[in-house]
TrEMBL record:
<protein>
    <recommendedName>
        <fullName>L-rhamnose isomerase</fullName>
        <ecNumber>5.3.1.14</ecNumber>
    </recommendedName>
</protein>
<dbReference type="GO" id="GO:0019324">
    <property type="term" value="P:L-lyxose metabolic process"/>
</dbReference>
<dbReference type="Pfam" id="PF06134">
    <property type="entry name" value="RhaA"/>
</dbReference>
<dbReference type="InterPro" id="IPR009308">
    <property type="entry name" value="Rhamnose_isomerase"/>
</dbReference>
<comment type="function">
    <text>Catalyzes the interconversion of L-rhamnose and L-rhamnulose.</text>
</comment>
<keyword id="KW-0963">Cytoplasm</keyword>
<keyword id="KW-0464">Manganese</keyword>
<dbReference type="GO" id="GO:0019301">
    <property type="term" value="P:rhamnose catabolic process"/>
</dbReference>
<feature type="binding site">
    <location>
        <position position="264"/>
    </location>
    <ligand>
        <name>Mn(2+)</name>
    </ligand>
</feature>
<dbReference type="InterPro" id="IPR050337">
    <property type="entry name" value="L-rhamnose_isomerase"/>
</dbReference>
<feature type="binding site">
    <location>
        <position position="298"/>
    </location>
    <ligand>
        <name>Mn(2+)</name>
    </ligand>
</feature>
<keyword id="KW-0413">Isomerase</keyword>
<comment type="pathway">
    <text>Carbohydrate degradation; L-rhamnose degradation; glycerone phosphate from L-rhamnose: step 1/3.</text>
</comment>
<dbReference type="GO" id="GO:0005737">
    <property type="term" value="C:cytoplasm"/>
</dbReference>
<comment type="similarity">
    <text>Belongs to the rhamnose isomerase family.</text>
</comment>
<feature type="binding site">
    <location>
        <position position="296"/>
    </location>
    <ligand>
        <name>Mn(2+)</name>
    </ligand>
</feature>
<keyword id="KW-0684">Rhamnose metabolism</keyword>
């Protein structure tokens, strides 16, 4: 039988099995098709950006590996992204950083404007890929001592406050153009390598700086402010100003979106268990779906238990309309387009698995106190034919089935990315 016939036959058998559990496969696929993952641009060029003399990546961010073919310009990055999206089922978003503006000559972070992102907004409209945004509080001389919005120097703080205000205007313009909110996520690296004499003062300064940035009420239909916590970074092992407690309190008290990054907590701490607690108090969540390995918070997302648990929590809590699903990983040791495909396909696969769970039945068993059946059915769920439904979804949306996408990456590498070498940087 042809591959298509195999895919179809396997899907029909799988659908019968799920149906027998009371799971509506078509409804699950319909819901999945409406979820737009915010794919992070910075995997494509190792978080370098296009400022020209951009400072070396620092402030707790590190990319390892030197796989050839990194995108060096906005056009190259857009080309790589188009290939990546062609390998991922569904319509998704692009998460941009302020570093990725298209600048004719030096433009400092406090001077950036919408005009520097017209190329991205035009591309977004052509590709029907909506945009999210991030101010860039790193890789800049004014971030060289590890502090930005919490800096003790008022002049440096003001520079970064102005950057945040500029970024909110850009995000609002993106949201107005695309007709839905551009999630604008604030992460600052501020913290100390060693024990601080005052944990209090930088946190008071950070809250005050953020309040100044957010002073102007911008329509939530155009942009949503998000704030991202972190436990530690390279060079801020002893103290991060923007801790989970800090931003949880900030988001609740200022009605902001809280960003939970899966790599930003203690190695044994998971964000899946935080979702339902946080959503008791904050309006919406932004997730940076990632994978922490040892000290690194940014490994390519694999089909892990925690990834499955995150998606189960979103579906079991009926939170799809309150959770913005972003990705955050940067791996320069493998083909960068492949990294996007692997991470995004895994996130969608895990979401499909959660949508194919007999959730109402499990929750009824729980309400009835039948914890035996709850566990038994949860375990049986693990060997249900998810792959057959996933392959059908890929084929029905016109993207490669199984690992066939890798051949597309190889072809693109052979014809395009392998021909890039730093000496031939196109201006
Ligand atoms: C580039 C991103 O802003 C960055 O990864 C941030 O989201 C983060 O997770 C820092 O550790
Ligand atoms: Mn993150």
């Amino acid at each position: 039988m042809s591959n298509t016939k195999n895919v179809r036959a396997a899907f029909e058998l799988a659908s019968e099995q799920y149906q027998a559990q009371g799971v509506d496969v078509s409804a699950a696929l319909q819901k999945l098709s409406r979820v737009a993952i915010s794919v992070h641009c910075w995997q494509g060029d190792d978080v370098a950006g296009f400022e020209g003399e951009a400072g070396t990546l620092g402030n707790g961010l590190a990319v390892t590996g030197n796989y050839p073919g990194r995108a060096r310009t906005a056009d190259e990055l857009r080309s790589d992204l188009e290939v990546a999206y062609s390998l991922i089922p569904g319509k998704h978003r692009l998460n941009l950083h302020a570093l990725y503006g298209e600048f004719d000559g030096p433009v400092d972070r406090d001077e950036i404007g919408v005009e520097h992102f017209r190329g991205w907004m035009d591309w977004s409209r052509e590709q029907q890929v909506d945009l999210d945004f991030n101010p860039s509080y790193f890789s800049h001389p004014k971030a060289s001592d590890g502090f930005t919005l919490a800096h003790s120097d008022a002049g440096i703080r003001q520079f970064w406050i102005d950057h945040g205000i500029a970024c909110r205007k850009i995000a609002a313009a993106m949201g107005a153009a695309q007709g839905n909110a551009c999630v604008n996520n604030f992460w600052v690296p501020d913290g100390y390598k060693d024990t601080p004499a005052s944990r209090k003062a930088p946190r008071e300064r950070l809250a005050s700086s953020l309040d100044e940035i957010f002073a102007e009420d911008l329509p939530r239909s155009q942009t949503l402010d998000a704030v991202e916590c972190k436990l530690f970074g390279i060079g801020s092992e002893s103290y991060v100003v923007g801790s989970h407690e800090f931003y949880m309190g900030y988001a609740i008290s200022r009605n902001k979106v809280l960003c939970l990054d899966a790599g930003h907590f203690h190695p044994t701490e998971v964000i899946s268990d935080k979702i339902s607690s946080a959503l008791m108090y904050v309006p919406e969540l932004l997730l940076h779906v990632s994978r922490g390995v040892r000290w690194d918070s940014d490994h390519v997302v694999t089909y892990s238990d925690e990834l499955q648990a995150i998606m189960q929590e979103i579906i079991r809590g009926d939170y799809l309309d309150r959770v913005h699903l972003g990705l955050d990983f940067f791996d320069a040791s493998i083909n960068r387009v492949a990294a996007w495909a692997i991470g995004t396909r895994n996130a969608l696969k895990a979401l499909l698995a959660a949508l194919l769970e007999p959730t109402e039945q499990l929750q009824q068993l729980e309400r009835d106190g039948d914890l035996t059946a709850r566990l038994a059915l949860m375990e049986e769920q693990k060997t249900m034919p998810l792959g057959a439904v996933w392959n059908h979804y890929c084929e029905s949306t016109g993207v490669p089935v199984g690992a066939e996408w890798l051949e597309k990456v190889r072809q693109y590498e052979s014809s395009v990315t392998s021909k890039r070498c730093d000496e031939s940087v196109v201006s």
